[in-house]
Write a structure and sequence with these properties.
Elements (H helix, E strand, L loop, with lengths): L2 H9 L6 E7 L5 E3 L2 H6 L4 E2 L3 H9 L1 E3 L5 E5 L2 E7 L4 E7 L9 E5 L4 E10 L4 E7 L8 E5 L4 H8 L29 E3 L5 E7 L4 H5 L8
Parallel strand pairs: 1-6, 7-11, 9-13
Antiparallel strand pairs: 1-2, 2-3, 4-5, 5-6, 7-8, 8-9, 9-10, 10-11, 12-13
Protein name: DUF2946 family protein
Pfam family, one: DUF2944
Organism: Robbsia betulipollinis
Length: 217
């Protein structure tokens, strides 16, 4: 959290919070929702101002109830989530020492360290793990940006180590995609590491990972 935000909180500690004005969509875009948009049930206009997006990203956190918010100076702006509290982009390699190792970056531009992967019943790919936004971030879940599904398919085609399924989660005994195709229970993730994958119903995501998609005051 920015120091200027901490200072504002200390100076004005009782500013009422608000809901409905800010939304994170399925492609990791911040969207502003005015009164008319909220009344119409729209998702809002994409915020394109780079400095504002960076400010939101630096001050984006969750409270103890699993409600994600943007601390806008002294005011807490709770965020509506189109699906998950994070959306990640997938990259392969980068620095010379990384080789072809997959890596994830969240909507705030921070690395996302995956502990497991998931296929939901709507054809989405998700990762549970820990973000690194400079704060003590609890384990959470992120949706893979749909533009990166083809790149993810290349990861699926990678040769898996002999013990690739050894550390799969207990509920990964059967991993089936929405079209009925059997999916691997683990994906090679570089450095000899395999990432376990399992199916999960989309309707269970929020409860399982402890977040609120539509926060109320």
């Amino acid at each position: 959290m920015d120091q200027i935000v901490r200072d504002a909180l200390a100076k004005w500690p009782n500013v009422p919070a608000c809901t409905g004005w800010l939304l994170l969509d399925r492609r990791g875009q911040w969207r502003m929702r005015d009164d008319a948009c909220q009344a119409a049930g729209g998702i809002g206009d994409v915020i394109r101002h780079d400095a504002l997006k960076r400010f939101i990203a630096r001050n984006y956190e969750a409270d103890a109830s699993g409600r994600w918010f943007f601390q806008n100076g002294p005011q807490r702006v709770f965020v509506d989530l189109a699906y998950t509290p994070h959306v990640v982009r997938l990259h392969r390699g980068g620095a010379a020492h990384e080789g072809d190792t997959p890596r994830l970056v969240d909507e705030c531009g921070n690395p996302f360290a995956p502990a497991a992967g998931w296929f939901d019943d709507q054809g989405n790919v998700l990762f549970s793990g820990t973000g690194t936004n400079g704060a003590a971030t609890p384990p959470t879940i992120a949706l893979l940006h749909d533009h990166d599904l083809a790149l993810f398919a290349e990861c699926l085609d990678a040769d898996l180590p002999p013990d690739a399924t050894a550390h799969a989660t207990p509920d990964a005994a059967v991993s089936v995609s929405p079209d009925g195709a059997t999916m691997p229970r683990a994906v090679a993730w570089g450095g000899g590491r395999s990432l376990p994958f399992a199916p999960i119903p989309a309707a269970e995501i929020a409860k399982r990972f402890g977040f609120v998609q539509r926060p109320d005051l």
